[in-house]
Amino acid sequence: MMNPTPGDRLSAYSANGAHGSVLVINSGSSSVKYQLVNPIGGEAIASGLVERIGEGEGIVTHKFAGNTTTARPVVPDHGAALREVLGMFQTQGPDLEQSNIVAVGHRVVQGGSYFSGPVLIDDDVLGKIRDLIPLAPLHNPGHVAGIEVGRALLPDVPHVAIFDTAFFQTLPEAAYTYALNAEVAREHGVRRYGFHGTSHQYVAGKVSRVLGRRLEDLNQIILHLGNGASASAVRGGKAIETSMGMTPLEGLVMGTRTGDIDPAVVFHLHRNAGMSIDEIDDLLNKKSGLKGLSGENDFRALHELIEQGDEGAKLALDVYIHRLKKYIGAYHAILGRVDVITFTAGVGENDDIVRALTAAGLESLGIAVDPVRNEGRVKEPRIISPDWTSTLVMVVPTNEELAIARQCIALVDEDPAEV
Ligand code: ADP
Which residues of the sequence carry a binding annotation for substrate (predicted)? Predict the structure, then answer.
């Protein structure tokens, strides 16, 4: 018998009458995003955000049944943040006890080489996520705090960790190894891990279902273009290359990150501009990319500046598109044949100018975008290439929360007695 897919497990799950929801928690360094998801229908039952944790007055925004509630309590730490979240469910709904939460899914950015899929969180798993803090100092501390408090506040449901890096654990050694001194690399965990994996995996699967073609038969390039941005090459459903590296800083030009840069720039700025390592870290991660080149990291604002004749904004767009084309060319060479290129995330789904410029001039690779099919924002999966191309170009909206919720169900439902 073939192994059941997550989809099979889902239908079995709903046929059992055991409908339930998954609380998805994404704890950042100073924020917690959450969503209560119906993993079968796919809709967000409720969602919200706690911002400015540890900064005096915090901001809590909760959305349920068409209403948005905002509060400004003092939120000193992640414990207080999650208590605010549970408080919002209590006062604004929906009642969590009635919602039959069957799992809490925690998004974790860095899973290192330990995790190649979702795992039930126990003390050992939490310890490993803590051990990985040196590799993800901006992200993993918030995750650890969110998981500790989440398990304490909701002790009766399984907590699952979903790693941004897991999908990229299939990268071949040649793709994940940096040509750095092997001993140093091994000792300090220096290698390509890749990030945004949940989104790349979800989109790769969705492309196959939408086209009605077997995932195993497809060679795909996926461009996840949000505020953070990454590209991946996926052969037969398995990732074989990706643009983010040991951290999310490498690769494409992003909202505020440089993406690829000569590492010697760091030495130069340290030695000659007198900048500390922390200042350079902040410069490369938060003050560069589109924002560093133009003052704006949002494409809507960037296009407005370009229309007003702003040269910095025009250059920012040119650098962004140039980098994207380089990655498409490189991944073409690595895949050999590309069946589908897919745009996703905030920029990929909404910005038809970026999509058109990225494909422009790639006709000799069999890649083009049809101006009419490409027009406007895309809310449902759509093919945007003309009929003659050898490579399909698509836009497929991503949904990381739903992907996390479904992975949680696929894991916890293997033993229905546990649910
Ligand atoms: P992240 O999850 O990385 O914060 P998103 O995937 O939500 O980011 O993408 C956010 C980005 O999407 C914004 O910074 C903006 O550049 C872009 N974006 C959102 N809406 C539009 C739009 N209507 N037109 C062009 N770009 C948009």
Answer: 107
What is the DSSP code string of 16-34? TT---EEEEEEE-SS-EEE
pLDDT attached to residue 88: 96
Evaluate if residue 415 carries a pLDDT over 80: no
**340, 220 in Cβ contact below 8 A?**
yes
β pairing state of 67-71 and 32-37: unpaired
Asked if 77 is an active-site residue, the reply is: no
What separation in angstroms does the CA of 75 have from each of 35, 93, 175, 184? Answer: 19, 21, 42, 40
Total-model pTM: 0.92
pLDDT at residue 29, as a whole number = 77
Domain range annotation of the chain: 6-163, 213-399
Q: Is the CB of 345 under 6 A from ligand 1?
A: yes
Distance 52 CA to ligand 1 centre (A): 21
Question: CA 188, 30, 33 angle in degrees (round to 5)?
Answer: 105
- In percent, the amount of the chain with pLDDT more than 70 equals 94
Which fold, 213-399?
Nucleotidyltransferase; domain 5 (3.30.420)
Decide whether any atom of ligand 1 lies within 6 Å of the 349 Cβ.
no
Same fold, 6-163 and 213-399: yes
Q: Answer yes or no: is pLDDT of 10 > 90.
A: no
Contact 327, 207 (CB under 8 A): no
d(CA 127, CA 184): 23
CATH code of the domain occupying 6-163: 3.30.420.40
Establish whether 226 is an annotated binding residue.
Answer: yes
Give the pair of three-digit tokens for residue 129.
């996520």
Per annotation, catalytic residue among 8, 77, 95, 164: 164
d(CA 34, CA 31) in angstroms, rounded, equals 10
Residue from 23, 168, 223 nearest 103 by CA? 23
Segment among 8-17, 88-97, 126-135, 390-399 with least mean pLDDT: 8-17
**Is 116 close to ligand 1, i.e. is its CB under 6 Å away?**
no
Residue 409 CA from chain centroid, whole number: 19
Residues of the chain with pLDDT > 90: what percent? 87
Q: For 275-310, how does the pLDDT look when each residue is reduced to its tens digit (9 = 90+)?
A: 999 999 999 999 999 999 999 999 999 999 999 999
CA gap 20, 286 in Å, rounded:
39
Task: For residue 105, list its beta bridge partners.
Answer: 24, 160
pLDDT digits (tens, 9 = 90+) for 400-410: 999 999 999 99
